[in-house]
Amino acid sequence: MINIKVLGSGCANCQTTYQLIEEVAKAKGIDVELEKVEDIGEIMGYGVMSTPGVMVSEKLVHSGGIPTRPAIEGWLS
């Protein structure tokens, strides 16, 4: 199972990013442990200055803006 964290304050882009990751994982039949991190201190602890940020298995793979479906598919492969 892949652990994915969406880092952000709960803004529309953060919510869309969370939903997109959920949709892509479901479409590909991949089990993911998806969680939201909304605590600003924790987000900054990951070094993210622009949200949404995405961590896959504790590695920062995206920061700022909504990721593309192909990018998400790449993270899940």
Describe the 3D structure:
There is one protein chain. The chain is an alpha+beta fold and 77 residues long. The protein has one domain: Glutaredoxin, CATH 3.40.30. 40% of the residues lie in helices and 27% in strands. Strand 3 and strand 4 (59-63) form a beta hairpin. Helix 1 (12-28) crosses helix 3 (69-76). The model has no long low-confidence stretch (mean pLDDT 96).
How is this structure best summarized?
By secondary structure, the chain is an alpha+beta fold.
Output the keywords:
globular; 77 residues; four-stranded mixed β-sheet; Glutaredoxin; 4 strands; 3 helices; alpha+beta; 27% strand
Largest beta sheet: what is the strand line-up? 2-1-3-4
Beta-strand level of the residues, as a percent range? 25-35%
Major sheet attributes = 4 strands, mixed
Stated plainly, the CATH topology is called Glutaredoxin
Rg over CA atoms, rounded to whole Å, is 11 Å
Shape, please? globular
Low-confidence stretches: none
Query: So what's the CATH class?
Result: Alpha Beta
* Portion of residues within helices: 40-55%
Return the structural class: alpha+beta
Number of strands: 4
Number of separate helices: 3
By CATH, the architecture is named 3-Layer(aba) Sandwich
Total domains, how many? 1
Q: Let me know the CATH homologous superfamily.
A: Glutaredoxin
Subunit arrangement of the protein: single chain
The SSE string, one letter per element, is EHEHEEH
**How far from one another are the termini?**
12 Å
Q: Overall mean pLDDT score?
A: 96
Helix-strand layout with pairing:
Blueprint: E1 2-7, H1 12-28, E2 32-37, H2 40-45, E3 53-56, E4 59-63, H3 69-76
Helix pairs in contact: 1-3
